[in-house]
Amino acid sequence: AQSVAQPEDQVNVAEGNPLTVKCTYSVSGNPYLFWYVQYPNRGLQFLLKYITGDNLVKGSYGFEAEFNKSQTSFHLKKPSALVSDSALYFCAVRDRGSTLGRLYFGRGTQLTVWP
Amino acid sequence: DVKVTQSSRYLVKRTGEKVFLECVQDMDHENMFWYRQDPGLGLRLIYFSYDVKMKEKGDIPEGYSVSREKKERFSLILESASTNQTSMYLCASGRGTRISDTQYFGPGTRLTVL
Question: What are the residues whose beta carbons fall under 8 Å from the beta carbon of B45, sequence distance 6 or more?
Fold first, then answer.
């Protein structure tokens, strides 16, 4: 069975400080991993994905994520948070053995960056 | 740019009504998905389709059906709406040829059933 856990419902950080949004996963094989962001009353926007290769993945808006196979984690990071980064963040996983392309999402983490 | 559109941003219906939510994508994607989003529960997959007239149940298909008569359009149908179907509904599409491909989401339909 495939699943994703986002252990924090909320993350609060001051503007200019580094931020981390945590994600751990469980799949039967090797994973494809994704991060999406949702701004209020909007659909999800793709941020970045890990497919293979370098464990550090860079994405949109200055975000990056680190894949750690031994810890089965894919934490989202940004060196310096902006107030405009405040949003709901979702981690998702797909098993490489999957033939139908469905994603399994975590429950989301609400990020609040205060001025 | 990939564009996924949904027929309504906000919808208010009465209990027992038949409700149609429409989704259209313009990138010739094979796969299309319907999710519902509820606070604290994240995204839950209702149905998905990997080809015209093909569909698969997701995790919460009860009370819903779908239709995919054309490749670009995927409809979600609430046969008899109930108050517990009040939710945000998100449509997504993605290519089926490479499993690493990204899913792209529409803006969502916030449905209220009274």
Answer: A102, B33, B34, B35, B58, B59, B60
